[in-house]
From TrEMBL:
Gene source species: Aquirufa echingensis
InterPro entries recorded: DUF34/NIF3, DUF34/NIF3_bac, DUF34/NIF3_sf, N-reg_PII/ATP_PRibTrfase_C
Keyword list, A-Z: Metal-binding
Keyword Transport among record annotations: no
Alphabetized SUPFAM superfamilies for the sequence: NIF3 (NGG1p interacting factor 3)-like
PANTHER family: GTP CYCLOHYDROLASE 1 TYPE 2 HOMOLOG, NGG1 INTERACTING FACTOR 3
TM region(s), chain numbering: none
Family indicated by similarity: Belongs to the GTP cyclohydrolase I type 2/NIF3 family.
Protein name as annotated: GTP cyclohydrolase 1 type 2 homolog
Signal sequence interval, chain numbering: none
Record-linked Gene3D superfamilies: 3.30.70.120, NIF3 (NGG1p interacting factor 3)-like
Amino acid sequence: MTVQDVCNSMETWAPLSWQESYDNAGLLCGSRSQAVSGVLISLDCTEAIVQEAIAKGCNMIVAHHPIVFKGLKSLTGKDYVERTMILAIKNDVAIYASHTNLDHAPKGVSYQLAQTLGLVNGQVLRPFKQALKQLTYFVPSDAAEMTRTALHAAGAGNIGNYSDCSFSQTGIGRFTPNEAANPTIGENNQAEAVKEDQVQMIFPSHLENSIFQALKSAHPYEEVAYFIQALDNTWDEVGSGYIAELPTEMDSVAFSAYLKGQLGLKHFRHTAWLGKSIKRIALCGGAGSFLLKDAIKAGADVFISGDFKYHEFFDAENHCTICDIGHYESEVMIKDAIHAYLSNNFSTFAVLKSMTNSNPVSYA
């Protein structure tokens, strides 16, 4: 198996098109054709983690945070980013990052935080918009099932918990092949009328190329009549943050102890407790202050995230309690999820979790 195989697997779960515009997810260094001897899973990528990979015989690192975030203009070793990249390149260690695209993916970072807390009845807090498209195409009725099957196999026609979804109606298609055509039905320069189905189905926009190739391959016509429309629909399985519920309501004292116990925290910052039972919990792994209004609108009693600035705590305005547990602490559990995912997909090399604590924040 190659580095590209691992990249493909991660991008099946978290396509690169789902990352934010400022992000730098994907393969950051290494040859895509290199055979993989082992993969080390980490939250960050530092010199210590590259050394760990080398010591454990892993020539690929899959990290959540990209070590290269801004453009590099030199590789002289002047800071930890350049030193990490130099060490990886010298030792043929490929580095791959799955960052905000994995934040947005189904069962991504915020979902994993919710699972660690044992929450139930969850859903995406801010679902994606404009990430779905609709395909409409016209096909002879006797070939309609063949094209539908091919498109479903390519990833079209999934809506929530339902697969193989489509709509079709039957009509008459009319065309005249010119002298250069090679028609499947009819004769050159003669008008033809054929019983055809108009078929419609939704698909994720990042699959557009493979969907189109599947349509062309399965369709019997030399020229396929089709059109694709961008949709404003929300995609409930994909997006930012997560909101769910505690199995049992708790008061603030019990919840504080529960939060510390489940996540192994000694301390966390929070706004005032609101003097009511806590049941509904909004979450965002990493820096999540941008989702505070979404959490309030969704009726969250508590919003758990990291990296809140001082003045941002005021924005809660006693609508919910902000619990800032720290950036590292809110995301470190994604290592377990990536490890389980890649271990399930690859059996020809070792997939290991990094034992290096890369959290740059310490508490006195």
